[in-house]
Every structure is written in C-alpha cells, then in structure tokens.
Amino acid sequence: MSVECNRLVLFSTHIFNQQIDAHVELQHNNSVVRLSVSIVGNPVELVPSLTYLGCRIDACGRSEEKILRSIEITRGCMKSLTKNLWRSSITHCVKLQLYNTYVLPVLLYGSEMGDVTVKSGKRLDAFDQRCLRHILQVPVTSHVTNQEVRIRSAQSPVTQTITARRLRFFGHIVRSDSINQSINQSYL
C-alpha cells in the first residue's frame, strides 16, 4: 500500500504586509482521494455544504437546496400576510408594491451568489407567478394566461431580476479587483 502526497500552491499574496500562502495536499490511498487544505499552516475543514448569511453553499456549486429553502421561507411570508393584507380591500397597485418591498427580497436574498439552473429558474418563476395570481386574486382555474398576469402586475419574471442582480454584482467584483490592484501596486 503506497501513499502519494502532492503539494500544489494555489496562491501567494500579501495582505496587510503578511505573506499568505494557500496550498492543497492530495493523498491518494487505494484510489481514494483525500483533499486537505491549509492556509498559512492552519488546516481548513472541508464540508459538503454550509449556511453562510442565510444562504446554503454547496461544495459543488449547486444551489438547488438554497432555492427550495428560500421558496419555503417566502411561502411562509406570503401565508402570514394572506389574512390581513392580500385579502384586504387595498388596491392591487399597493399590494404589488408591498410584495416587491417585503416578499421579493426574502425570495431573492443571496440570489446573485448561487447558480440558477433552468429547472430551478422555472421553479422560481412558477412560485412568483402563483404569488402574483394570489395577490391579483386571479384563480388558476380561470382562463387567464401567465403572460396576462405579468402584464396586469407589470412585473418581470424573477429570473430576469436574478440575472440583473448577478450582472450588477459581477460589475462590483470587476471594479473592486481593479481598485485592489491599484492599491497593491501603490504598496510595491
């Protein structure tokens, strides 16, 4: 039984005048790959998934679980507002503003970070569509198309909002990298 140990340096940089080295050690043992990561000599625990700031992060980059969780939390928000708000005599315009202010942020929290597949995008749009039908009091059994509900509510699909947020977030990252490079060059 032989054990191989390979060392691969991922990055080396200076942060606050301290040298930071991160490396990965792969141990092959009977065709089982063990991955251990350490940064500046301190081991970092690898977990299959974790919750950070309310968002579920998967080691493989999948966000299906996070999307399902956010839909369930948002469903609870909609349900808690049904009796007092959605069934009240408030105009549809005000109800939609309240939906955009109080409910959609719950659904979209951290959406710019995750990976939205076609399947999960359809799930998000379908949930949003049900919410809009509920707010506008358009039953599913009536012969009103989803497009007509979107026109009545003047709402864009949630997946378009997520795409816009992701692009905005990407712009922040690109700008921050150029700022960090100019700061690092000034220290050299």
Rg computed from alpha carbons, rounded to a whole number of angstroms: 23 Å
The ordered string of helix (H) and strand (E) elements is EEEEEEHHHHH
Q: Could you tell me the number of beta strands?
A: 6
Discrete helix count:
5
Gap from first CA to last CA: 48 Å
Provide the low-confidence segments as ranges: 1-21
What composes the largest sheet?
4 strands, antiparallel
Tell me the count of domains. Answer: 2
Portion in beta strands: 15-25%
Q: How would you describe the shape?
A: elongated
Helix content: 40-55%
Walk across the major sheet and give the strand order. 1-2-3-4
Structural class from helices and strands? alpha+beta
Mean pLDDT across every amino acid position: 76
Can you walk through the features of this model?
The protein is 52% helix and 23% strand. The protein has helices spanning 64-86, 92-108, 118-136, 146-153, 158-187; strands spanning 4-15, 18-29, 32-39, 42-44, 49-52, 55-58. By secondary structure, it is an alpha+beta fold. Residues 1-21 have low confidence and may be disordered.
